């Protein structure tokens, strides 16, 4: 069954809806864990650094984006942990999911950057094509 559930989250409304689905699934499976994966988009890091005082402030802002997700999982008594890594979101999620042998990936159909998804192809589409486990795309 789905013991390790990877929830790709960026703070968007679709990520929160994806968290709701992750909570429903994890609540049915004893000893499951939801790994919340936030990928700090490498193309936005320069801007983050320029608008922040220090590394701790950058980390705080990233974690604040995930507060609705963590609150939702906590309120549903779902065991979870947060992983923040840097990279290009699509390939980074795929690499993490495949290398960490997660059982299920849950991702929103659209993230915070709709223009980039329109021009370059959506992150969720890249994940569905390349991840080696089942994927649920939530819209």
Structure, described:
- It is a single chain.
- With 139 residues, this protein is an alpha/beta fold.
- Helices cover 48% and strands 22% of the residues.
- The chain contains 7 helices and 5 strands.
- It has a 5-stranded parallel sheet with strand order 3-2-1-4-5, with helices on both faces.
- Helix 1 links the parallel strand 1 (4-8) and strand 2 (33-41).
- Helix 1 runs parallel beside helix 4 (67-75) and helix 5 runs parallel beside helix 7 (123-130).
- The two termini are 24 Å apart.
Structure class: alpha/beta
User: Which range best describes the helical content: under 10%, 10-25%, 25-40%, 40-55%, 55-70% or over 70%?
Assistant: 40-55%
Q: Roughly how many Å is the radius of gyration?
A: 14 Å
Low-confidence stretches: none
The profile of the biggest β sheet is: 5 strands, parallel
Number of helices: 7
Describe how the helices and strands are arranged:
Layout: E1 4-8, H1 13-27, E2 33-41, H2 45-50, H3 55-65, H4 67-75, E3 80-87, H5 89-99, E4 104-108, H6 114-120, H7 123-130, E5 135-138
Parallel strand pairs: 1-2, 1-4, 2-3, 4-5
Q: What are the key terms here?
A:
single chain; 139 residues; alpha/beta; 5-stranded parallel β-sheet; 5 strands; globular
């Amino acid at each position: 069954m789905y013991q390790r559930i990877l929830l790709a989250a960026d703070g968007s409304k679709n990520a929160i809806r994806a968290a709701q689905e992750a909570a429903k699934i994890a609540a049915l499976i004893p000893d499951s864990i939801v790994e919340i994966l936030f990928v700090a988009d490498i193309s936005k890091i320069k801007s983050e650094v320029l608008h922040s005082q220090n590394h701790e402030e950058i980390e705080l802002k990233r974690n604040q984006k995930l507060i609705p997700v963590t609150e939702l999982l906590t309120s549903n008594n779902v065991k979870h942990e947060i992983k923040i890594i840097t990279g290009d979101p699509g390939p980074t999620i795929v690499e993490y999911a495949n290398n960490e042998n997660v059982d299920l990936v849950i991702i929103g159909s659209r993230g915070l950057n709709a223009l980039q998804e329109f021009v370059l192809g959506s992150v969720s589409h890249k994940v569905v094509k390349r991840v080696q486990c089942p994927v649920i795309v939530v819209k």
